[in-house]
Design brief:
The longest helix has 18 residues. The protein is an alpha/beta fold and 528 residues long. The protein folds into two domains: 301 residues, Glycosidases (TIM Barrel); 101 residues, Golgi alpha-mannosidase II (Immunoglobulin-like), CATH 2.60.40.1180. The chain is built from 15 helices and 16 strands. Its EC number is 3.2.1.51.
Length: 528
């Protein structure tokens, strides 16, 4: 069976068509007119392509109320299903990445990178079982309020009908506009729809060598132009070696990004790290800043005429001023409440964003705790799944999502439409705050408590059920500076049993029933 599958891949690869080197290296003819139109639209206002103008941005209320969204990493990288969604990059680098040597795996499985490159996986990326309605129903049942598929990952293969390349899902592989189909189905389920763009890192994504297919200029429309610095020995080390993108690349990026805005009217537009060539760069020193300002002005101006307020931009590090867009933290959290609203993006898998074999899955218990912790600190959670190349979502992913959805059906009122409280919580367990640092996190304990509020109601979420069926909340002691009011009633969400409690200078001690109303964390509803 393995050899039959390989033969099928090789046969499919023959159908991949190239482009003349001269044409592929030049700017796409549609880019210049697109940029001219973008500039004209920005001039109409009200937002201008300047940070002081963009800092007048206000986050729409629906987003601050939603708290929970679904991320989808899906592309041709799901075909090899090895290691991670960075397979397209690592298959050209003869170094281990997190214990795997993609380069040697590729040669052993498919042959040399010259004769079978990443482009040759695309014909086998068929999405023959993809059903946008089924996905949207699953995400709705999970309790998600918004959905963000990857419109284009670092690999340079858009999952939508892109006017600036033929290497996209509407013309190759699935031969369907995946983003459009999802936008319709997601909105029919009453959820908001967003997109993500990781294209900015395509500039540095593919390490080149004359022995690889990606060195051939005729494939520049997919891999990006084979710039001389990509052939250097240190080209793999993008964290320490990242030549800034040139004008041709940035104009193409701007044209693509604004086309997505026009075609799909996304409620959220998520950007990955490539929009800053160095994590230490700020929005004031970033060489990409002019194009980010143009995009933000264009997107905000266009989205002002849509329903439910202006669009949302997610960014990493310091690519934007914090009052001009929404900060996103990858696989990490905040230690305290952050007054400007923020977001964590993470995945059901600890090992990859895209589909691979032998995923290392997280438990739904852990993910529910993450959601509770993030919301208590004025954030929201964007949780990723990685579908198979045929368009099915793995059963393990689905089981995790359904478990979270079951918890939210009982306890969702402590999450949706809430705000952070005076303090986020109490307990001994801290969380990771550095970029991609969640692997350092320890499980929450029964002593860990988190708070959210809605009007006069305070929600107290215990991260783990105490073995004694009793919990003392020190923050709600009778002399508490946080809660000076008398407590009128306490109920346990999902339970009809009467809750007994006592409040003194040591804290609020609550006796819990023997029967748990739901799996994972539990929620006490405190009213005056």
């Amino acid at each position: 069976m393995k050899y039959l599958a390989l033969a099928s891949l090789l046969l499919a690869a023959v159908s991949v068509q190239a482009e003349s080197p001269e044409v592929a290296m030049q700017p796409h003819p549609n880019v210049a007119p697109a940029v001219k139109n973008i500039d004209a639209k920005i001039a109409e206002g009200p937002f201008q392509a300047k940070w002081d103008s963009l800092s007048g941005y206000e986050i729409p209320q629906w987003y601050k109320d939603a708290k929970f969204g679904i991320f989808i990493h899906w592309g041709a990288y799901s075909v090899p299903a090895f290691g991670s969604e960075w397979y397209p990059r690592q298959m050209y680098i003869n170094l281990d990445r997190r214990g795997d040597n993609f380069f040697q795996h590729h040669i052993d499985t498919y042959g040399p990178q010259k004769t079978f490159g990443y482009k040759d996986f695309i014909p086998s990326f068929k999405a023959e079982k993809f059903n946008a309605d089924e996905w949207a129903k699953l995400f709705k049942d999970t309790g998600a309020r918004y959905v963000i598929p990857v419109a284009e990952h670092h690999d340079g293969f858009p999952m939508y009908d892109c006017s600036f390349t033929k290497w996209d899902a509407s013309e190759m592989g699935p031969k369907r506009d995946i983003v459009k189909e999802l936008s319709v189905s997601v909105r029919e389920q009453g959820m908001k729809f967003g997109v993500s763009s990781h294209r900015a890192f395509n500039w540095m994504f593919y390490v080149r060598n004359e022995a690889y297919d990606n060195a051939d200029p005729q494939y520049a429309d997919l891999y990006g132009r084979p710039m001389p610095f990509l052939f250097q020995e240190n080209a793999w080390d993008y964290q320490n070696f990242f030549p800034p993108q040139d004008q041709q690349f940035k104009d193409d990026w701007l044209a693509r990004s604004c086309e997505i805005v026009d075609k799909y009217q996304p409620d959220v537009f998520w950007f990955d790290f490539g929009i800053t060539p160095d994590r230490k760069e700020t929005y004031e020193t970033n060489s990409y800043a002019e194009h980010l300002q143009k995009f933000a002005a264009y997107y905000y101006n266009q989205s002002k005429g849509w329903n439910d307020g202006i669009g949302v931009i997610n960014y990493k590090f310091e690519a934007f001023p914090e009052d001009a867009a929404v900060l996103d933290k990858e696989r990490s959290k905040m230690a305290e409440i952050r007054k400007p609203f923020w977001q964590t993006d993470t995945a059901v898998s600890a090992s990859s964003w895209g589909y691979t074999e032998n995923q290392r899955y997280k438990t739904p218990d852990r993910l529910v705790d993450d959601l509770v912790d993030i919301v208590s600190k004025n954030g929201c959670l964007l949780l990723n799944v990685g579908p198979r190349p045929d368009g099915t979502i793995p059963e393990e992913d689905q089981a995790i999502l359904k478990a979270i959805g079951g918890w939210l059906k009982i306890n969702g009122e402590a999450i949706y439409d809430t705000t952070y409280w005076t303090t986020f919580g109490e307990g001994p367990t801290s969380v990771s705050t550095g970029h991609v640092s969640e692997s350092k996190d320890k499980p929450f304990t029964s002593e860990d408590i988190r708070f959210t509020a809605k009007g006069d109601v305070l929600y107290v979420t215990g991260m783990a059920w105490p073995k004694t069926n009793s919990i003392t909340i020190k923050t709600l002691a009778s002399d508490s500076k946080y809660y000076a009011d008398d407590i009128g009633s306490i109920t346990l969400l999902g339970s009809d049993e009467e809750i007994k409690w006592n409040r003194n200078a040591e804290g609020l001690t609550v006796s819990l029933p023997a029967k748990h109303p739901s799996e994972f964390a539990y929620v006490l509803k405190v009213t005056k």
